[in-house]
Structure formats: structure tokens, C-alpha cells
Amino acid sequence: MIATPLRILPLTTIVRNRLLPLDGEVKVRAGQKVSASDVVAEARLNTKHLILDVSAELEIPPARADAALKVKRGQKVSKGDAVAETGGMFGREALAPVDGLVVVTGGGKIVLERGGATLSLPAGISGTVTQIIENRGVSIRASGALIQGAWGNGKVDAGILASLINQPDDTLETNQLDVSLRGSILLAGHVSSLKTLQAAAELLVRGLILSSLDANLASAAAQAPYPILLLEGFGRRPMSAAAFKLLSTNLKREVSLLAEARSARANARPEVFISVTLNQEPPEPRDVEMFAAGQAVKINWLARPAQFGVITQIFPLEKHLPPAGVIALAAAIRLENGETITAPLSNLEALG
Amino acid sequence: MPASLVDGNSLLAVEIGSINTRAALFDVVEGQYRFIGQGTSPTTASAPLGNAAYGVQSAIQALQETLARPLTNADGHLILPSDPDGSGVDQFSVTFSFGAAFKTVLVGLLPDVSLKSVEALAASTYARVIDAVHMNDTRRPEEQVDAILRHGPDLILVAGGTNGGATRTLQKTLELIGLACYLLPQETRPALLFAGNEALAQNVRGSMKNFTSLTALAPNIRPLATVEDLTPAQAQLAQLTSALRERQMPEMSEIRSLAGGFLMPSAFARGRMLRYLAQAIAAEGGALSVDMGASSLTMTAALGEELSLNVFPQFGIGEPLAGLMRHTSLEDLARWLPLDLPAETLRDYLYQKSIFPAALPVSAEELALEHTLARHLLQLASRALLNRLPAPMRSSGSNHLSFELILASGSTLTNTPTLGQRLMILLDSLQPVGVTSLALDQNNLLAMLGGAAEQNSLLPVQVVHSGALAYLATVISPVSNQPYGTPIVRAKLIRSDGTESETEVKMGGLHVLPLESGQAAQLELRPLQKADVGLGPGKAGSVNVLGSSIGVVIDARGRPIHLPTDPEKRRELLQRWRSRMES
Hints:
The complex is a heterodimer. By secondary structure, chain A is mainly β. Chain A has three domains: 2-13 and 139-275, 3-Layer(bba) Sandwich (Glucose Oxidase, domain 1), CATH 3.50.30.10; 47-114, CATH 2.40.50; 291-351, SH3 type barrels, CATH 2.30.30.60. Chain A has five helices and 29 strands. Chain A has helices at residues 54-58, 62-67, 194-202, 218-223, 241-248, and strands spanning 2-6, 8-19, 25-26, 33-34, 39-45, 48-53, 76-77, 82-85, 93-95, 100-106, 109-114, 117-122, 127-133, 137-148, 151-152, 155-163, 184-191, 207-213, 228-234, 254-259, 271-275, 289-290, 296-299, 307-314, 319-321, 326-328, 330-335, 340-344, 348-351. In chain A, the strands form six sheets. In chain A, strands 2, 4, 13, 14, 15, 16, 17, 18, 19, 20 and 21 form an eleven-stranded mixed beta sheet that branches. In chain A, strands 22-1-29-23-24-27-28 form a seven-stranded mixed beta sheet, with no helix packed on it. A four-stranded antiparallel beta sheet of chain A has the order 6-11-10-7. The radius of gyration of chain A is 27 Å and the shape is elongated. The two termini of chain A are 16 Å apart. Chain B is of the alpha/beta class. Among the domains of chain B are: 3-96, Nucleotidyltransferase, domain 5; 102-248, Response regulator (Rossmann fold, 3-Layer(aba) Sandwich), CATH 3.40.50; 472-583, Immunoglobulin-like. Chain B has 16 helices and 22 strands. Chain B has helices at 52-67, 114-122, 141-151, 168-183, 201-208, 231-248, 251-258, 266-280, 330-334, 343-355, 364-388, 411-414, 419-430, 446-452, 458-465, 567-582, and strands at residues 11-16, 20-29, 32-42, 91-96, 102-107, 127-133, 155-158, 191-194, 214-217, 263-265, 287-292, 297-303, 306-312, 405-409, 434-440, 470-477, 487-495, 500-506, 510-513, 520-527, 541-546, 552-555. In chain B, 54% of the residues are buried. At the A-B interface, strand 1, strand 6 and strand 26 of A face strand 3, helix 1, helix 3, helix 4 and helix 10 of B.
């Protein structure tokens, strides 16, 4: 059976698409090496439009108004510029009421685009641009350590990794956030206070990698100005030993925090990537993982901390699973402590 | 049915849901179509595979392993049509409910007329309405355009004007929509369905085709100001949304092509089957289908030719849970929690479930939390449904669901360990009134059968009548305004073997009358104090009932069910009801 993979890999090669949410301009070329903070594409966001009814203003039919236009699509105009004029001794002008870009002409009307802010898309990871996706962005290939998480707030940044966690079940308290951590990406445990998220914002951290978060803070976390990645999810959940170990061995290094929102539409999952320069590129993870005996797995329980183990047997038919008694395809799993349990396949992620 | 009417074609139906992809085989056994078996695989449309075809292939693989019957060749390709040696299948159909709801902009003229109709049309599919443009919109035209650009809709649904009526206002609105579409990048332009004044239809096709990804025309959903007819437009919308999903996920084109073009949204297919069931099984009181999906909850009601198709993407028991608190409060949600747990545990659970929608509850605590969520989602959806039902489907003078048949599906229900628990989830949440038969579509076949009907109209009929649906129980739910503890109904169950049992039903009670599976009986009901058992206030009568492993249930807990405000008393009561049903 096809398995959902969870990547916690000390060394791998990944290819990630970095795309604008709308059409824009790609700023790099294929083959170019980029660092995480390099801008790879730009677009104008939140532009506004203005419809000028030239025909009405000049009191002439739309076809004549079209003939009287002095501007073309793609042309920039300034406030007060004549955009149309009728000929003759008593000719009249229609003036641009604002600065803008002519985006549509026709039917006796002009549409001006104005304002807007520039959206700069950073590379997010350090690597090599392998493909240009016209008007939208790039594919970047890179090698390094990859740690995938459970939830992200949709933001991306990179910075030096600092740790505020000693044990996997630690809680991050507001008073642990001091000025020495400004501009860092922080590795921490559980967060249960809004003040902690606010203090991190005031400190201008580049991001938080947390084990878990109280669900009542989900909305605040989604709106935080910096990326937040939850390795385990919502409710008090200790950080998995595998992620804790791998991240803890990469302190003081630059890490990319791609806290992509996990959704069907985005087709992405939140992750931490730590680029490494190597002479020989390590292999990419397999496209498809299958459940099989010997497969290492993470067991995601909905109201308890996750567990790790190795599949010893996959049951061919659906089983009633105690204690609740739900019916599901399941596997026997030997946990790290030697105990063997049965868990539904749908609760498992294949490690690798 | 004479065997000669059955041409003997086997049919493979695939349903691609958000979590699971199911492949079901139907074939002729002893001259009748039967459900042969089912294979399931995780749906692979999202990360990391991002291609639904893997899940389809894997589900078919699982099916052929279960049946030990070859369906694919050595390369893993489906053998279609079947070989003389019996391997493969003769027909193939696909339904789907996976994927994010389509971001939809509604366009109409009057908010209470055409906009309301187009809203009902949008509710019949996997759509999330993000904006509405209409005559009373106070925004300037530029602001309307900017809003559409900001939203980047997948779909625009347009209605407005009666046939033969004025066209000018709608024409102006369409120009605005055309401008917004033109300003969007070509590859992200939305699809558009026009179901307004038919005088504009050809004009819309001509003018919009360059500005939209797909353009479809449907008969006017408001041909006259007082007449609403959604059915033809729903069929067009089903085709359009299938095409839209294909555009978003190119592998769907291959799947459609393999299925000979027979691809349809599950909600629409389910509606088609329910219309049949309502006519065949529940002609007098109509039928309600409830499907608890991970990405949406669908409630479809049918009475005669009338069909009310309602998809609630906000009430899916998977990813949409992260947004549930926008529609309810934690206090309301926790009302049905039978365990002494902080309400915050429930909130953590629903957020965790939103990021791991496929994960199943395994501990008793998780199961209680899951069932609490299920009850609340069904209750929220049924409240919304009551506002949408057409007049003939509303029980007179009451604000409760009244259907002869309620058919439920979705893994949350079908994975629930006991029949009693399944029934209680449905009764607590839907709170039907009158006499209702409840059944479970335990293999989630309804949508697949609706999809299969396109190629073989006999197959779904025979499969349904072959016992593919699991009967839960007949439930009598009297309505009365008497205080708790007051006798409101005397019921006498007369079994076919002549044995009788009599029960006095008090207000607030939940009674189970034992009646073995398959055994028929007559239930005489004598209401007291003008209670209404579904025959009219105070009216006595008898109904034919069929036994099940649960029995016959009389649910006199009141409508709506009022739960004690004291948490301890509430939990005690919930446990008592549960024990009553389990015993």
C-alpha cells in the first residue's frame, strides 16, 4: 500500500519550485547558484484599477472614442496626461486622473492599473536554479539535511539556527527570548502563550521551529510576521527524537524554514532544509514509499504524542482495533522500547 | 428481473475521495447485478505524489488481490474490455470528491431572486463562495474588478434576468466580469457557467470564450421570476467542474479517457441515485442522504422529482476542521462530549485532525472526541439544510428533518465500531421527526452507483435491491411540548409470530423495542397529549416495521434535544443514552 512519507534525512537532494502567486518577472537564469535570501522573481501585488469612460467624458460614441485615444495598452501615463482628444477647432481632451499603466482599451473606455506593492520572492533555499517557470518562478536543486513537519503558517525565511530546547517536551517561555536571539531561527518546544509569539515578533526572529502549539494560538500563528513550523502539530506534543537530534546537531548553521501551509491545493508540506556543499550529490528520496515489513514509521495519534517504530507485519484484511474498536487496515509495529502494537495504516508516515 | 435483460457486462467503479480512493467491482451473479468487492488505497492527489492516478491504480490492485481476479495486465494497465478468460472489466466509471473546493464568484441581479438561485446552484457542488456581484452591490465597478482579481476565482456562476426580460443590466455586469477575467493571467482564468436570461446565452458564449478557461451555458435557473429550476444547470455544472478538475490535475484527463468519458462529481452522482431511491423506496416521505467526507459534508434530499443537493465544504471532517471555529463555538461543540475532558482538548484534536485528516481515532478518548465532532458537524449541516430545503420537503409547521429514509455514508460513520453508536450519532445530530428508516451505505457505494448509472441504468437498481445497503433501524420520533416524564405515546409492537409487547413512552425517553433482524412487525402508536408521531398531532395509527440487530427505536428525547447545562448531568445523560442503545 502507498505510504505518506515523512522525510527526516541528514543528507539528501531536493528540488523545490519557488513560485509567485501571480504573474511577474523571473530575476535569475537557469544554472545560476542562489542563496536562500536572493530574490528569484518579483510581481506587483494589490494593484488597483480605474475605468475611464472616455466615450461618456467626450460625449461621443464608443467607436469614435476608440479612434480618439492617444494611448496604447502597456503605456504609462501620468496624472493630467491627455489620454484621448477629439480633433477640430473646438476639440476636447480626456485627461488621466491618476498616474498609471494602460492595461485595456476598447469600447470607448480605458482601464488604468495603479498603485500596488512589489512582491519579492526569495529563493528560500541555497542551491542551483535548474528550471525557469515562465513569469512565475524557478525550480531549485540543493543538497543537505531535510526535516519535514506537520503544520506551517505559509511563510518562508532563512537564518542562523539557535536552540531554546533541552528536552523534547520543553515549553518555550517568553522570558527565554532575549536580544541575543534577534534575527535567528529558533528551535523550541511547545508554545502555550500568545505573549511568546508576540515577543518573538518584537525580537524580529526569522522563524520558529516548534514541537507543538496550543490550538487556540493557531490563528495568531497563522498571522505571525515570521514563519512558524510545527514538527508535531497541535496540543502539547514532545518533539520527536529524530527531528530533535538532527536539528540540534545543526545549531549555528544557516537553515531555510519553508513553513508552507499544508493543503491539498498547495501540494506542499512544511520543512526545514539545511544546505550543504558536497562534491558528490546524495540521492533524492524515492518518489513513492510503500508500507512493508521493515519500514520505519511514525505513528500519528490524534490525542496523544506520536510514536516511532518499525513495521513487523501488515495485516492483509481490515481489523477491529482495540481499545476503540475502529475497523481499518493495520500493521503490527515494534516500538523503540521493544513493545509491539497494532496501528491503522492511515495513521502511519513512512520515514525515509 | 428476467435474466435476459442483463447483458452481463462487468463494471468497475472508482471513487476518488480526499482521503481514500475506492475501486468497486459489479458483475452479474445468478442473472442479477451484484456488488462483488472493493479495494481501497490512499488518495494520491496531494503531496508528495500529486497525482491521483497512483491511488486509482493502487485501489484497483487492492481489489484484484482481494478478489483473486485479474483486472490489470502485466504492465498494471486495466484490461478493458474484459478478455474471454474473464480477466478485466467491460465498463469503467469514475466519480470524484477530492481536491480543494472551487473558489467561486456568484453573479446575479437581485439578491433575493437570481442571486439566491445561483447560490443554491453553487451549493450543489464542491464550491466555496468567495464573492458575489449583483445590482445592489455598493462597490464601484473598479472595486468589483479588483476584488475578483484579488480572489483569483476558479469558477464564476452567472444568473439573472427572466427569459424574454430586459438584458441591459446583466449585459453591463457581464462586461465587468469579462474585464476582470481578461486582466487575470491566461492560465489562471476561471471557468464560467451562464444560467441567466437565455436571450444573452449565445452572446455570452461568443464574448466570454476568450476570457475564461471554460465557458458553459445552461438553461435559465429563473426562467420566470417565481420559478426556479436548478436541475439542468446542476448537470452542466457537474460537467464543468469535472473539466475544471481535469485542468487543475492533468492526470484526470487520462482517467476520464480511460473511463470513456464517464467522470462525474460524487455529489452529483449521489444525487442521481438518491432521486431513484426516493422514488423506489421512499415515495411518500422522501429520502435524505448524508455523506461525511473529509473535504466536505454532503446532504442530499429527494422527494418525487424534487432534489435538493447541498455540499458543505466548511463541514468536512478533515482539512476544513481548521476553519470550523468560524462557524461555531467551543462550548457548542463540547456539548456532546461524553467524557470529562477540558474543551481545549477538543480544540487541539480538531486542529490535529485537520493536518492528519486520514488518521483514525484508536483510543476510547480519541473515539469520543471524533464522535463529538461528527455529531456537531452533522448538526451544523442539518440546520443549514433546513433553510435550503424546498417547501415540499419541509415538515409542515416544524423546523425539523422529516424523511422516510435516511441513508448515511462516510468513513467516520462506517468505521464506527458498533451499529448502536452509528445510529446514535445520526439521531443525536439529525434529530429527525416522525417515522424514519435509517440505513448505512457501509461500502460508500451510492456515488459509484450514480456514476455507473450513466452507462448501465439497470446495475444500480439491482445492486441496491441486493442488500448492498445496511439497514440500521426504524426510529419513531414523536414531537410533543409536554414536560419531561409525561407519557406521550403508547406503543404496541405486534410481531409476525403473534407475540406482542407494549410500551408507554414518556417525554425525554429513549426506548428500544427488541425485534430480530429481518423480522417484520406492526407497530401501533397511540399518541397522548396531542403528541405527533408523524401522522399528525394526536393522530393514532400503525406502521410496518422491520427488525434489526438494534431493534425498533422510539426516540422521545424531544425536538430539539435539550441537554442539561450542568456538565456532569449532561455527561451522565449521554452515557445513559449510549448504554441504552448498546444494550
